[in-house]
């Protein structure tokens, strides 16, 4: 709370009610920080603690009975690592496809001299409010022979209309129109202009979209739940669902002391698996936060 | 020489398309994907009015009229799924002002470094995947050996079974959403606040307004356009209660409070393969959403300067 105090000291002459409210503001902020961070912190310390200490409610601030068992146990579950590998593939390929598809469409739609621009924009916007729904979409995917394949995770749903709108707005506002005029005079065509001039000038929006699409792929489980059958294709999130939520592991256990130990390990592993699966995003996040905020700002610009 | 206006227009269009063929090539991948995987399934919606069987295909299956719609309206699940869907969406809709209030408060923080840190921390939960979030909830909210159970016991009380109660399902669903998304959802409002012309505050100061009066008289009205636009979009999805989180949170104990239209559509359609029935329920849901969207947009157009179209 020194922060609040210094703020009050630095501020020019204030009514006392003002500084009281200022103090309350920082008390509220501290409370919000606590309820946001503590649950996550608890998972971290619980993952290094003796499971029975966690179960008895002895773990509050520091790990109790330090152990790495939970992390060791992860190594025995190959499906986690298969899922990890699949997710990295899906995210890399899916982000590449998503960027290619959405950026190129966004640039074309940003050009005022595109004939039929209004109609084509409507064609895109319409899909924001309507789709075929679960079953017709499922039947379509099956008819295309994409059911239970690698490609179903990265190709069919690569178009993101919201992403296109954001990128289109960026191109309209940040790429000077006379650049195209002069490039044209030099005999530069649309495609070369897009790849050589527009994209290098649009690093900000490219990185925003890359982040959005990548996080989306990393965190999604719905597509995999519906369109994948083979466990060898499962992304990490689906494996996690089985470990954290449907507890499929416990069904394969007998009884007695061995089962007791297995159950304890399973409980401990739930903490470590959360840590291991969420760390990549959490580590990357502070570095890319600036871009994220920028992206939302771009998106917030009124058309 | 033909020089009727229509002919000239046609020629100009053809010339423009020919000149910009590169742009149409850039549009091709996205348009193709949408036609194949979004517009083609829209045609498939007609199976809601047919007795679909894979042997005959979509167009070959016999018509069934409104049979499946009637079946849904007559089923005992109709009331449950409608009630839960409406209740959960209205409940989460009621939390709409929270990110706005949050943004107003963050905007008042004068210590720049603390403010940045605060924003970084409060955006973070947004990046936790739905699966991990529900996993966290199962661990932390457990009345026996979860964090909530321990906290209740500190105060000598008996913890409620938050994840295994039909009555509490909507509250757990909505408030965990608030926990996860408030920081993130406030970004757009903070952006709008940072765009406010400082001279407005100067003028208010001359009139003797203090900081908190400024919030009420300047910040709040300036956020209205953004808020109304987002509100309309939200209402458009009012009955589209997200499948992902509800489905993961469902269990045998809370099913009567957690079965919503989207989870029912999934179970009927993909788990018990009643394709036509499932498509009919889904179509019904879409129609209601669309009517709501039209209605709200109409109201917004009449009573404010903001509307979607």
Automatic annotation (TrEMBL), chain A:
Annotated ranges, domain ABC transmembrane type-1: 84-274
Q: Where in the cell is it found?
A: Cell membrane
A cellular-component GO term for this protein: plasma membrane
Any GO BP annotation: transmembrane transport
Checking InterPro entries in the record gives: MetI-like, MetI-like_sf
Which keywords are on file for this protein? Cell membrane, Membrane, Transmembrane, Transmembrane helix, Transport
Where are the bilayer-spanning segments? 20-44, 88-109, 121-139, 151-171, 191-215, 268-288
State if NAD is listed as a keyword. no
According to its record, how does it sit in the membrane? Multi-pass membrane protein
What domain of life does the native source organism fall in? Bacteria
Q: Principal localization?
A: membrane
Q: Which PANTHER family match?
A: ABC TRANSPORTER PERMEASE PROTEIN MG189-RELATED-RELATED (PTHR43744), POLYGALACTURONAN_RHAMNOGALACTURONAN TRANSPORT SYSTEM PERMEASE PROTEIN YTCP (PTHR43744:SF9)
Q: Which family does it belong to?
A: Belongs to the binding-protein-dependent transport system permease family.
Output this protein's name. Answer: Carbohydrate ABC transporter permease
């Amino acid at each position: 709370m020194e922060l609040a105090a210094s703020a009050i000291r630095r501020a020019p002459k204030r009514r006392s009610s003002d500084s009281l409210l200022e103090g309350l503001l920082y008390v509220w902020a501290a409370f919000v920080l606590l309820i946001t961070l503590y649950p996550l912190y608890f998972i971290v310390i619980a993952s290094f603690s003796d499971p029975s200490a966690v179960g008895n409610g002895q773990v509050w601030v520091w790990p109790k009975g330090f152990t790495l068992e939970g992390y060791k146990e992860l190594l025995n579950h190959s499906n986690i690592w298969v899922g990890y590998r699949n997710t990295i593939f899906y995210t890399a390929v899916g982000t590449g496809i998503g960027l290619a598809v959405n950026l190129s469409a966004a640039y074309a739609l940003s050009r005022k001299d595109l004939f039929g621009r209004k109609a084509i924009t409507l064609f895109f916007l319409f899909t924001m409010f309507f789709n075929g729904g679960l079953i017709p979409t499922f039947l379509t995917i099956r008819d295309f022979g994409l059911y239970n394949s690698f490609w179903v995770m990265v190709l069919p749903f690569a178009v993101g209309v919201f992403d296109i709108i954001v990128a289109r707005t960026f191109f309209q506002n940040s790429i000077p129109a006379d650049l195209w005029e002069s490039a044209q005079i030099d005999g530069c065509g649309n495609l070369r202009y897009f790849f050589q001039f527009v994209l290098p000038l649009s690093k900000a929006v490219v990185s925003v979209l890359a982040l959005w699409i990548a996080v989306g792929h990393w965190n999604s489980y719905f597509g995999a739940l519906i369109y994948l059958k083979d466990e060898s294709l499962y992304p990490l999130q689906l494996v996690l669902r089985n470990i954290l939520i449907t507890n499929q592991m416990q069904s394969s256990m007998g009884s007695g002391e061995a089962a007791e130990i297995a159950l304890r390990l399973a409980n401990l592993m739930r903490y470590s698996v959360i840590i291991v699966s969420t760390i990549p995003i959490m580590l990357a996040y502070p570095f890319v936060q600036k871009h994220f905020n920028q992206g939302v700002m771009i998106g917030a610009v009124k058309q | 020489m033909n020089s009727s206006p229509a002919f000239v227009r046609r020629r100009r269009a053809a010339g423009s398309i020919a000149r910009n063929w590169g742009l149409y090539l850039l549009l091709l991948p996205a348009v193709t994907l949408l036609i194949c995987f979004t517009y083609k399934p829209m045609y498939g919606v007609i199976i809601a009015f047919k007795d679909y069987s894979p042997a005959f295909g979509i167009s070959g299956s016999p018509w069934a009229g409104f049979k499946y719609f009637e079946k849904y309206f007559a089923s005992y699940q109709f009331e449950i799924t409608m009630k839960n869907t409406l209740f959960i969406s209205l409940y989460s809709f009621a939390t709409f002002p929270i990110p706005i209030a949050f943004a107003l408060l963050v905007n008042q923080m004068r210590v720049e470094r603390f403010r940045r840190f605060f924003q970084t921390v409060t955006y973070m939960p947004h990046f936790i995947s739905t699966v991990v979030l529900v996993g966290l909830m199962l661990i932390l909210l457990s009345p026996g050996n979860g964090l909530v159970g321990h906290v209740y016991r500190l105060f000598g009380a008996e913890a409620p079974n938050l994840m295994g109660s039909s009555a509490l399902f909507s509250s757990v669903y909505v408030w965990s959403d608030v926990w996860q998304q408030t920081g993130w959802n406030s970004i757009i409002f903070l952006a709008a606040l940072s765009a406010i012309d400082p001279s407005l505050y100067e003028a208010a100061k001359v009139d003797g307004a203090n900081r908190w009066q400024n919030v009420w008289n300047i910040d709040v009205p300036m956020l209205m356009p953004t808020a109304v636009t987002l509100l309309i979009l939200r209402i458009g999805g009012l009955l589209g209660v997200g499948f992902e989180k509800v489905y993961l949170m469902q269990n045998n104990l809370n099913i009567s409070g957690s079965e919503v239209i989207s989870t029912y559509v999934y179970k009927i359609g993909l788990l018990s393969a009643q394709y036509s029935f499932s498509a009919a329920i889904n179509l019904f849901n879409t129609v209601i959403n669309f009517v709501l969207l039209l209605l709200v947009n109409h109201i917004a157009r009449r009573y404010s300067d903001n509307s979607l179209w």
